Amino acid sequence: MADYRIQGATGEWEVVIGLEVHAQVTSEAKLFSGAATAFGAEPNTQVSLIDAAMPGMLPVPNVECIRQAVRTGMAIDAKINAWSRFDRKNYFYADLPQGYQISQLFHPLVGEGEISVDLEDGTTKTIGIERIHVEQDAGKLMHDQHPDYSYVDLNRSGVALMEIVSKADMRSPEEAGAYVRKLRSILRYVGSCDGNMEQGSMRADVNVSVRRPGAPFGTRTETKNVNSVRFIMAVVEHEARRQVDLIEEGGTVVQETRLYDPDRGETRSLRSKEDAHDYRYFPDPDLLPLELSEDFLAECRASLPELPDAKRARYESQLGLSAYNAAVLTAEVETARWFEALLAELGEDQAQRASNWVISDLFGALNKLGKGIEDSPVSPSDAAQLLRLVADGTLSGTLAKQVFEIMLETGDAPDRIVEERGLRQTSDTGAIEAVIAEVLAANQDKVAEYRGGKDKLFGFFVGQTMKAMAGKANPQVVNELLKKALG
Length: 487
Description:
It comes from Allosphingosinicella ginsenosidimutans. Heterotrimer of A, B and C subunits. The structure is a single chain. The protein is an alpha+beta fold. It has three domains: about 5-300, no CATH class; about 305-420, no CATH class; about 430-485, Arc Repressor Mutant, subunit A, CATH 1.10.10. It contains 15 helices and 16 strands. Strands 1, 2, 6, 7, 10, 11, 12, 13 and 14 form a nine-stranded mixed sheet that branches. A hairpin with a 5-residue loop joins strand 6 and strand 7 (about 125-135).
């Protein structure tokens, strides 16, 4: 692809991007306690004595959280460290009762991996993953509940997070957006995170620096807790431009933590950026190192589903789908599951026709309704029945669209709609011939013009016939009989 450049007053600048994605692990319990993790619960109703840091309470690792992080590492072909260790990261947060966060700095659970992303110009780029470590989330401070006090909700305190740290391999907002979308897709396929960025279960810290093309890396800033792909791309664009303007005006970029204000479309300084030594990391004395057995690792690998890249390749090679259709149908795990349920009813030999229908008809209808495929009013089995009714000649394409619209409104099965509303296509040659005779008798002038060489009028006669039969005539039969009648 063409290199993305910031045009400054003194020349071109290159942007360098690294992302730290915090993904909440799919688990019914927290990382070191049995407290629940459901979203939207009443404040402070999902807090154990461990989460509240009561004296004498000791953490116990949740094996499901470890398992999900390992499976995620395997899904991106990362190195899995059979021996890892938890560290204490010391800092005071009012919503972190322990006064420290249990994290992993020196010996993370997952080492280096990589993700391939597809870009708009048709190229593919591989982006390196530095590490994945597991850590506790903090709680939530609420400053708008009382005029004089801040309230604290500890429901999130202790929830397991995977921090997925990329290498500084991205060079444009588009690459950053493509990386987060692909990572989110993989996490949802694996089932290790639901990827709901609007609920905060996946968010990113965006590291941005600028440099002259080919020069050493510049000083980076980190914009915290950005919770949508669109905002991540906006942060890169704004922060890169801000840094270029600052440098060209004679200023210096300061290593700092910033916040993004989506209403104003800008970042602003939060605090100077701390280095690892400022947090006084040391091995957590309450937790033994994690040692993963070969059997545990084998079970994790065996539990992985077919991942998006492999599924896409199979759709192209085995099902014969176009590269575009395969990419669209495998981008999100819900779409792939829905499509495969449809194919299970229809048979793989119908994959091309089914994929076209899903992408054009179903997606078009769901977009108008503002729904995702997981909330589709039409089930895969009913969709399969609709496509079979078209294939066996019961419905024409036009009638099928009518039936589909009724299915979306009512949720009824297509065969019931066809019977109750009399929408069955007719191939009765006698009935069609009678209507054609009426159409030709009413349009003698156009018949004469057609027979005089105006071949394009054939479409007019087809349209008039279909209109007279309320769209229920078999178009193929209409075409054949009209050709015969017009001689």
